[in-house]
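Open question from group meeting: does this chain pack into something compact, or does most of it stay loose? Before anyone orders reagents, we agreed to write out a predicted structure and look at it together. Recording both the input and the output here so the notebook holds the full record.
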Amino acid sequence: MNASDLELLKLELEKKMGGGIESQKDLKLLQNAIEVSVNKKLGFNTLRRFFSFLKSGKPNNNTLQTLCEFCGYPSVAEFQIKCRKNIDWYLWKQVYRIENENLISKNDLQWLLAQQKHPDFIHFLSSVLTANFRSKNTNNLKLLLSNENRIVIKYEDQIKLASSLGLLFRKIDLEDFLFLFNSTQLNQFYTFLFIDYSEINGTYGKVINYLIDKTKSVASDYLFISLIFEYHRYLKGEKEIKIISNQFNETEIHPLLLGRWTGYQLISKPFIMEEEKFIFSLAKKHKAKNQFFYELFPACILTKRISLLEKIIDKYYEELFENTNWVTYTENCIYLIGYCFVNIANDRPHQGFKNLEFINFDHVLDSYKEYIKLFYLIAHYQAELKIGSDENLLNLEKEYTSLAKKMGFKRFDQDLLKNYFDNTSFTKRSPSKTGIASIRSI
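Structure tokens returned:
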């Protein structure tokens, strides 16, 4: 129990006794009241030390348990829960006050940034940012998001903040805030982490279109912006897209970005010399294989490189599926869909269905949910087709057509849905040549 908790416990004891503990007589009354109330004895000197009548030390667990029981709490833990709630309320009250400031003071900004180690800091920051976006207070937003105020938060919290802002930006007009994207940390908190395929023809696309002319061409940020911009053109069905060459150090950029660039090579070039060797050599440059292949799998599916998918899964199965927390769940889903395509191609549609059964779209990141659903529907449709079942085909087709139209992705046409494997060159591999043919259950 920390010092602030001990002070609160003293206040609770004084309230229970109906007044302050200010004399030896008060301590004696407290000692007797404890014995009568909870049928436990505490030494008089123990109480004197607790209330600093004697040189105090840290009270032991038995003393704390007895005092908490006297105050009406079944355990020390229950009392501390109340302490946490009280402390959290004091913090939230400060956050609410900051939210309503027309101009956040230097002291308030320093206080907020000083909470970065608090487990709820990401919620504090998200709440303050949301309030100021809704009130269109750009002065406060410039202060909060200034590059001078480096906000260091772990990756999971970055995803939470990005999701919070992404869902907000779907509901508000960003026109008045676009200048923040090339002058503050907003790209790090939103653009690079909440790749909103559902809004790529709307809010998110507006941000990308703004940044494509504002970002320096030598920066890795520009590589990301260019890849999103051109990939969007591809998804819309445009026939000619820009070739984006390698002008970066492959070991210095994030594996997600390297994987996105690699996947883009598959859709933008008709032929890549020693394609498999090229991809596996890039994969070796980063430990996080699950991040590298995240954006590469959709490219393989769209370009019908099923043999390549099989080789990737065979070589990196453990790395792709070993992470199962909420952050990596969306990655796992795209890998499961890719695995489903491999199983269908190898005449194992029932195994493909088992892959899809592991996917719960309620747990998929909002930014990717509808985008991944399109790949899922193609895989599901083809699996149904393979086993000769017509029962669900019409419903799957309706959902696919509606979703592709809503997102404006002409690349996802009827031919891709219905005739996916008709013109796909795929060499089936025997179980003796691959470790994934039948022994894995995912």
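Observations to bring back to the group:
The CA atoms of residues 162 and 189 lie 5 Å apart.
The radius of gyration is 29 Å.
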